[in-house]
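Give me structure tokens for this 300-residue protein.
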Amino acid sequence: MSSQKSKQNFINLQVKAIIANFVIIIGEADNKNKDFLAYVPDESLFEKILLGEDYEINLDQIILIASINSIKKNVLKRVEKIFRLIDSEPSIAEDITVPELNVIKQFITTKEMLQHLEYTSFLEPEIRDRIQENKAMTFLESYFYLFGIEDLKKALKMDEEDEYDIEQILKTVLKAYEILKHANLDQAKTIATVSYKLKELLREPLDVDIKINTNVLDLLRITMELKKLNEGESKIWDDLHTIEEELKAKELLKQIPEATEDQETKDLEKEKEELEKRLKEIENKKNELREKLYKLIRNK
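Here you go.
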């Protein structure tokens, strides 16, 4: 499949994931059906995307590699065959919990899609090289794009609260890549062996030892921390908007004769001040992380 200049029509175009240097997934907000793998040859634009700065995507500067749906379709039969072999092994069902097995299947799906992705990009040497220069990062970012982290948190028995251990998440996914990268998943015995290795990883993630460049791990850690801050920021904005609406309603009540300011209004105003303070703290933290990220990508 050869790459081509983008002629697609998008509404509210967003970058969904960065899976390698200059290689991204783009598509419409809240709609994965039109997501595309794309190459960004413009270094300044890619840097802004990576740092989370304000930018505008010029579709004429983006080279499409393949639609995500086409990649999924091309690996579907193979993945289903692997899953049938997993499900036909009684000991796996007995020894591996459902949450663990769900994540194991997600890891395998990501591995097969990454393998197909290398083949898809073969006709474009520069794009192929970008993907192959750090397959571990591509695996990790592809996994997060495809499945998020909620199932992984459940398999790792993390608390359902907003806080989670970024280091543990990163190392678990990267170790899964190390386990899978050379595995030929055509034989039931190999699939069973890999499944048990991944099960042990999910049960003992704190003992993980991974072979990856320190700078790359730092980059992944920072980008994931930024994502986490953005999630928290989004939730705070939602809460803040709710409080502002309640305060507006209270303000209307004040116009009624003999209405007095109640304690609830004072509490809402205090909560609003706290949320605004947290937003400023998050923005300061994001700026610090962006500065570290900038130094990393500039190798300073």
